[in-house]
Inverse folding.
């Protein structure tokens, strides 16, 4: 299939804005991005797109957001990547800001309390389903289970997540077998535009921004630095950031309590886009509009820069046995992390029979591949009816 002429920057932005408005379902949006950019617009050939998906699955960050950026990067360089990335994520950001503002002023109303009391167990079911799905695709032998089990124990003992992830990377390098060589047909067939100078500009601008925050707004510096670090560790897709966020925001810093954080996860599920948009909710509740904006930038910018830096070199990097073993170990650790957070989320719920039945029904629906949006909508209606 031959590619059409390159899209303009406005075309990229508008196309991904339209996709972002309906971007429910997280990584499943990759199929819709493929349909629009490869089949309909023919901006990329299938081989280049598939190589991009492989890259986005192996680096930190929300997969669908990264794939959107990869399309822009492949067609119009770093500016194109930024246009696609921002366009795809903008609807989720604006909606979450609205939801956070409404939540801040209405969360004490009886109907809102009733809705969220049931929705918190829906979140437990969502995270449990993510644990099962992630585990099914990641844990394939005893060594994988061992690395994931060690990580789960350490996370359960409140070990520092960064140290646990680094340990898993070392375990992967030492004990796992590398993946077989990548077939030629999934490698990029289109040369990637150079990214060194734009990446240096991004890094310099980011460093200056953090320096300004440190000098003029230390509390915002702490917020931005935390989410920046979380995004850099979120291997395995956006869901991997949720347990890290919970650990740092609720358990370490106690900026929010567990139930409030769970409510943010709920709102993250009813907005389009990745679940990491929960960072906007956290930032807004802590420091208003500026907090929401900085938290959002910080939870997306690091993985965007990783994509920009690695994309031109990915064909060589992805066949490195050491790289594949390290990534394998890190992904195993996230299964343990998700398991631990499932149990902690469950511990924040005051269980009774109706809540147990609601959680069980939600988990069963998710296992049967019912869209998360409809599970959340049904859970909201049920909660308001049962718990008012």
């Amino acid at each position: 299939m031959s590619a059409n002429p390159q899209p303009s920057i406005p075309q990229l932005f508008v196309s991904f804005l339209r996709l972002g408005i309906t971007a429910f379902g997280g990584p499943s949006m990759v199929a819709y991005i493929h349909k629009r950019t490869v089949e309909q617009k023919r901006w990329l050939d299938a081989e280049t797109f598939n190589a991009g998906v492989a890259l986005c699955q192996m680096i930190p960050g929300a997969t669908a957001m990264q794939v959107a950026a990869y399309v822009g990067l492949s067609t119009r360089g770093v500016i194109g990547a930024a246009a696609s990335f921002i366009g795809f994520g903008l609807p989720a950001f604006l909606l979450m800001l609205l939801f956070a503002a409404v939540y801040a002023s209405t969360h004490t109303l009886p109907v809102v309390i009733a809705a969220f009391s049931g929705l918190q167990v829906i979140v437990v079911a969502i995270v449990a389903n993510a644990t099962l799905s992630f585990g099914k695709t990641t844990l394939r032998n005893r060594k994988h289970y061992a690395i994931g089990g060690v990580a789960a124990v350490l996370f359960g003992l409140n070990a520092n997540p960064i140290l646990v992830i680094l340990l898993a990377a070392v375990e992967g390098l030492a004990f796992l077998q590398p993946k077989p060589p990548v077939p030629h047909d999934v490698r990029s067939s289109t040369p990637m535009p150079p990214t060194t100078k734009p990446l240096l500009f991004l890094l310099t601008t980011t460093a200056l921004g953090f320096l300004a925050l440190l000098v003029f707004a230390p509390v915002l510096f702490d917020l931005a630095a935390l989410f920046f670090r979380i995004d850099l560790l979120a291997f395995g897709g956006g869901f991997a950031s949720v347990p890290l966020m919970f650990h740092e925001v609720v358990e370490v810093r106690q900026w929010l309590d567990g139930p409030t954080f769970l409510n943010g996860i709920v709102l993250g599920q009813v907005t389009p886009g990745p679940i990491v948009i929960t960072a906007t909710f956290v930032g807004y509740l802590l420091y208003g509009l500026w907090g929401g904006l900085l938290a959002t930038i910080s939870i997306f910018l690091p993985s965007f820069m990783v994509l920009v830096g690695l994309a031109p070199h990915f064909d060589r990097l992805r066949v490195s046995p050491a790289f594949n073993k390290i990534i394998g170990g890190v992904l195993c650790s996230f299964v343990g992390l998700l398991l631990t957070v499932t149990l902690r989320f469950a511990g924040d719920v005051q269980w009774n029979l109706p809540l147990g039945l609601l959680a069980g029904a939600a988990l069963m629906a998710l296992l049967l591949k019912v869209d998360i949006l409809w599970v959340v909508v049904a859970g909201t209606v049920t909660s308001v009816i049962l718990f008012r």
In short: The two ends are 57 Å apart (CA to CA). Confidence is low (pLDDT under 50) at residues 184-188.
